[in-house]
Amino acid sequence: MVPEGNNQRNIERFSGYGDTYDRYRPAAPPLVTSLLTGYLQRKPELVLDLGCGTGLSTLVWKKHADQVIGIEPNDDMRSVAESKLEQMTDAAHIRFMAGYSNQLAVGSETADIITCSQSFHWMEPASTLLEAARVLKPGGIFAVYDCDWPPTLYWQVEQAYEEVINRADGIIREQLSQEKQAVKRDKEKHLAAIKDSGHFRFAKEIVFHHAEDCDADRYFGIAMSQGGVQTVLRLNPKELDEDIKRFKQVVDDFFQERTLQVLFSYRMRLGVR
């Protein structure tokens, strides 16, 4: 049973493309673990990663925490994470479990760090923050971090990316009633939500960047891994055919079979309990 405050459509939005998501999306950069461990001033005993998806933001803690739990309500996404974990060695301290951000199956004051990577905007903020405050130890850290899309490379490529994403979002608005659409909250309000909750003695925003190698296939794939595009591909794939073709052509023409560096820009909003 889905706990009150959770939107089933938000969960279903991520069904059916776990492999695509995992192949193209960036893993959490190393700076995430060093920043949060620095704020904690010790190695965390327990890290919870909420809305962990395919584990891209969970497995980075392998060498940096005594115990790590990735919590994900979508079965498809979580199955990809579990498959990766099965292939890893020295990872008995990591596990994935089904669950919801506002109803965590862990004891009070047990976690040192709770993270939400690319996920808090799909959660009900008030009940999630209340539950995080229950689970965190005094001095524990709640950290939400998101990547700005598209990755920084070249303006014409980025413009083409935004056009296909905006087209997908427009199709959803046209063809799905509001009751059938997922509810995406404004990321710019994350810090205010943390501050206004009253659960945290300190809150701030941190911005940072991470460079990665990228070829045309990956840049194209990042766009295809976006939930809005995937929703349209399930709903009526022909609606996006021409837009996707145009985008792919722009990407291929720019990369010319090269591997280039792209810049992922992150915004982290954190609170200290």
Description:
The chain is α/β, with parallel strands linked by helices. The chain has a single domain (8-272), classed as Rossmann fold (3-Layer(aba) Sandwich), CATH 3.40.50. 40% of the residues lie in helices and 22% in strands. It has a seven-stranded mixed beta sheet. The mean pLDDT is 97.
Summarize the structure.
The protein contains 10 helices and 7 strands.
Overall pLDDT confidence: 97
Indicate the low-confidence ranges by residue numbers: none
Widest sheet: strand ordering: 3-2-1-4-5-7-6
Percent of residues in helices: 25-40%
- What form results from the Cα inertia axes? globular
Family: Belongs to the methyltransferase superfamily.
Organism: Paenibacillus rhizosphaerae
Protein name: SAM-dependent methyltransferase
InterPro entries: Diverse_substrate_MTase, Methyltransf_11, SAM-dependent_MTases_sf
Structure keywords:
273 residues; alpha/beta; Rossmann fold; 10 helices; 40% helix
Q: Which helices and strands appear, and what pairs or packs with what?
A:
Layout: H1 8-12, H2 18-24, H3 30-40, E1 46-50, E2 67-71, H4 75-86, E3 94-97, E4 111-117, H5 125-135, E5 136-147, H6 155-175, H7 190-197, E6 202-214, H8 216-224, H9 227-235, H10 241-255, E7 260-272
Parallel strand pairs: 1-2, 1-4, 2-3, 4-5
Antiparallel strand pairs: 5-7, 6-7
